[in-house]
Amino acid sequence: MIKSRVLLAGALLAVAGAANAGISVPITLTSDYDFRGLTQSDEDPALQAGLTWTLDSGFYLGVWGSNVDFDGYDPDIEIDAFAGFTGGDAAESVGYDIGAIIYTYPSSDDFDEVIELYAGLSHGMFSGKLWFSPDNYDDTSWYVEGNAAIPLPAGFSLPLHVGYSFGDYWDNSSGEYLDYSIGVAYTFQNFGMNLKWVDTDISGANTDRVIFTVSTTFPWSKE
Question: How many domains does the chain divide into?
Fold first, then answer.
């Protein structure tokens, strides 16, 4: 199983490496790996990197990885592979994004790989996406989210997010829950900075925290 995960990631990297013109490489340093309101790094810093290959048609595929810490479980790295298709015009009308992603933990015997399908729409500063997993540890699961990036003066913006996790997987485990965040983002040359407050409505859980993130994407713009 571990070999299949590594081979999948390696195959995607090899394909992407064959087409330099369509490659982008995002690099992120964050004070906490936040995933749908829950920490994936035990509230410690995480270094994240990816590689995406995009065709003019809108088709894309790539890989993404991060260190993780689930406090008592064995994975220390997450590697995801994804493929999808984007189209439309979010600036003038409506943009769309459909695809699939597989989450893997190559160093773990405790965590299985999970596949999610997704479909999203965007218009101007607003976007939304629906995620569905047909086999999340033998159950189905759903996640729906809405996002906004409200422009502010002097290059700042106000990112807003709300999401809801539901379905059989959550009914049979910790229960369905809402996550939300609000922050301030700023772009300086080729770097983006984001300071956000994150929380959930999980009963009895202390999930509220402040997260700071710095990111950039290669190749840098020559403009």
Answer: 1
